[in-house]
Design brief:
Blueprint: H1 18-33, H2 40-46, H3 52-58, H4 62-86, H5 91-108, H6 110-118, H7 122-152, H8 161-180, H9 191-200, H10 202-213, H11 221-225
């Protein structure tokens, strides 16, 4: 049985550390070539000549590296969005803030976000899917619980949680995916241009999320439309 790697809770390697160098180099190569076509020697060279011993000190093998880095970025992304959610007392501020946090996270670290979207090779999925499912379920439960509480107070519409989550984060997810995975009719944006592109959408997507989720006052135009 393949052992599922567990992300190091609350831990991020310090910038410039060997572990961080290996992880950053690996993500670049995995996105460019795929995990299967990337060799450990390629990662070591791209990481600035990191030794084989240093690699195996931090990671069991290439697949463990691919899965561990994926899970750590997923955990960090989820944690950052939940921190944003929890820091707002007002429901409207929280709804808007989480949308903005999503876009800014992707703009600040597009390679990490790209890896979260593209790390789907079967061998990597096989060893990460158990922990991935646990993390995603915990994240979903936190958001669903919050939505349920705010619907119970009458601040948000009482919708199935999956509908509310799609209205809340779906547009941001689609915009980010389109920006970091350009199709045949678009070109990949440089990091600064990508961040600016996503920042330009913050207000409109935050507004749209709030309008979609808020419970309208009786008699207002939004209530009549629904």
């Amino acid at each position: 049985m393949t052992r599922t790697p567990t992300p190091s809770t609350g831990h991020r390697a310090r910038p410039g550390s060997r572990r961080e160098d290996i992880a950053a180099a690996a993500i670049e190569l995995f996105l460019e070539r795929g995990v299967a076509a990337t060799r450990v020697d390629d990662i070591l060279a791209a990481a600035g000549g990191v030794s084989v011993g240093s690699f195996y000190h931090h990671f069991r093998d290439k697949l463990s590296l691919a899965a561990t880095v994926y899970l750590e970025h997923l955990q960090r992304f989820q944690r950052d969005l939940l921190v944003e959610l929890d820091r707002h007392a007002r429901t409207e501020d929280a709804v808007r803030g989480v949308v903005v946090a999503y876009l800014r996270w992707a703009g600040a670290d597009p390679r990490a976000m790209g890896y979260l979207h593209q790390c789907r090779e079967p061998n990597v999925v096989e060893i990460s899917e158990g922990e991935e499912a646990r993390l995603k379920q915990g994240f979903y439960d936190r958001l669903a619980g919050w939505l349920g509480e705010r619907a119970a107070t009458g601040e948000l519409r009482a919708l199935p949680h999956e509908h509310s989550l799609a209205l809340w984060l779906g547009p941001a997810e689609q915009l980010v995916r389109a920006a970091i995975e350009p199709s045949g009719h678009s070109t990949e944006l440089e990091p600064d241009a990508l961040a600016a592109h996503l920042a330009h959408a913050e207000r409109v997507l935050a507004d749209a999320a709030w309008e979609a989720l808020r419970r309208p006052a009786p008699g207002d135009s939004a209530d009549q439309a629904r």
